[in-house]
Write a structure and sequence with these properties.
- Residues 3-131 form the VOC domain.
- One of its GO terms (biological process) is L-methylmalonyl-CoA metabolic process.
- With 134 residues, the chain is an alpha+beta fold.
- The chain has one domain (3-131): 2,3-Dihydroxybiphenyl 1,2-Dioxygenase, domain 1, CATH 3.10.180.10.
- The chain has helices at 14-25, 63-71, 85-94, and strands at residues 3-11, 31-35, 40-47, 50-57, 74-81, 105-106, 111-116, 126-131.
- Strands 2-3-4-1-5-8-7-6 form an 8-stranded mixed sheet.
- The longest helix is centred in the N-terminal third of the chain and has 12 residues, at 14-25.
- It is globular and about 45 Å long.
Length: 134
């Protein structure tokens, strides 16, 4: 793992959250993107060298909708940049982590992604991210 790629924050209303975080960070979001396969709309902020991803559910049965229903708005996941997501999935599986996506899938911001179950990471949902080249 190279670095924290971004921190994901679940929000009920992306438009309202964008206004709040624009005031907080003193800068506007740089991208809004829908990820239909996950039932989510995302908004990205750059804060120094760090990125924050806001996530709003677009379907009532999406993981973000379920998260907000259970825990409310807040930090949803921490994402880490990796060079070879398939090798990381294999390594972490051998280390007995519960990998939710044994095959990486396309995520937001031009990334391949896979998640580790919070049961195996002290309650923190971990996302692995690899830049899609080409």
């Amino acid at each position: 793992m190279n670095k924290i790629e971004h921190i994901g924050i679940a929000v009920k209303n992306l438009k309202d959250a964008n206004k709040l975080f624009e005031k907080l960070f003193g800068t506007p979001h740089y991208k809004i993107e829908d990820v239909k396969s996950e039932g989510v709309s995302t908004s990205f902020f750059k804060v120094g060298e760090n990125k924050i991803e806001l996530l709003e559910a677009t379907k009532a049965d999406s993981p973000i909708a379920k998260f907000i229903e259970k825990k409310g708005e807040g930090i949803h996941h921490i994402a880490f940049d990796v060079d070879d997501i398939e090798a990381e999935i294999e390594r972490l599986t051998k280390e007995d982590f519960i990998v939710l996506n044994t095959v990486p899938k396309r995520g937001a911001d031009n990334k391949l992604v896979a998640f580790l179950h919070p049961k195996s990471t002290n309650g923190v949902l971990i996302e692995l991210c690899q830049e899609i080249k080409g």
